[in-house]
Amino acid sequence: MISTNQLKNGNHIEVDGTIFKVLDFQHVKP
């Protein structure tokens, strides 16, 4: 599991053996 501060546009993450590229990430404080 990764934290939200590790998500940046262009990063690659692996979930269940599948690699995803972060295209757009927005963090909205509640």
Number of separate domains: 1
What is the gyration radius calculated from CA atoms? Answer: 10 Å
Strand order of the largest sheet: 1-2
Separation of the first and last Cα atoms: 22 Å
Number of distinct beta strands: 2
Description:
It is a single chain. With 30 residues, the chain is an all-beta fold. It has one domain. The protein contains no helices and two strands. A two-stranded antiparallel ribbon has the order 1-2. The chain is globular and about 30 Å long. 0% of the residues are buried. The model has no long low-confidence stretch (mean pLDDT 79).
Tags for this model:
globular, 30 residues, two-stranded antiparallel ribbon, 27% strand, mainly beta, single chain
Summed up, what is this model?
The protein is mainly beta and 30 residues long.
Outline the fold blueprint.
Blueprint: E1 12-15, E2 18-21
Antiparallel strand pairs: 1-2
